[in-house]
Amino acid sequence: MTVYGYARVSTKGQNLSRQIKALNEAGCETILKDKITGTKRERPALDELFATVKEGDLVIIQDLTRISRSTQDLLNIVNELDAKGVGLKSLKESWLDTSSQSPQSRLMLTIFAGLAQFERDITSERTKEGLEVAKENGKHIGRPKTKNEKVEHAITLWKQGTNIKDIEKLAGVSKTSLYRKLKERGLK
Fold first, then answer.
1. Structural domain tally of the chain?
2. From 10, 70, 105, 174, active-site residue
3. Is 10 a catalytic residue?
4. Is 156 within a domain?
5. CA–CA separation, 167 vs 178, rounded Å?
């Protein structure tokens, strides 16, 4: 039996060290890591994990949100691991241990996965409602707009043949903002 760990964060800027430490302390022999959103089912390390595990192995995760983003996704992952004879265990959700194959563990998995999905859906709904209220009240949502004077200066520099890195420094306008404005004006 091999004990695998699976760790995931959503963006490259986030850190896996807390998860890796917990998985090492749990006795994982091999830890596979992804830095990709959990909403995508195709994740390189998770795909490698499924290709590698064999009957009798155990996969440990720090918590459910690291391996799945929806109840259906979690149940599909559990079923896929079960079909291979592989158990799944969560360090945070101690009730999740499919290696025991107990009916109680299956029931808890279904109930709590549903509750976790419900919580994510409520949070998402509240966020959308909050954004709508902010828009109605005239608040700008998103990145701050680049000031027109800066953009005009950047376009002038661009027309003079200044390279993009220098334009970013001199005008204080990002390459993305500059290219967007150039495209809007039909200059690029």
1. 2
2. 10
3. yes
4. yes
5. 9
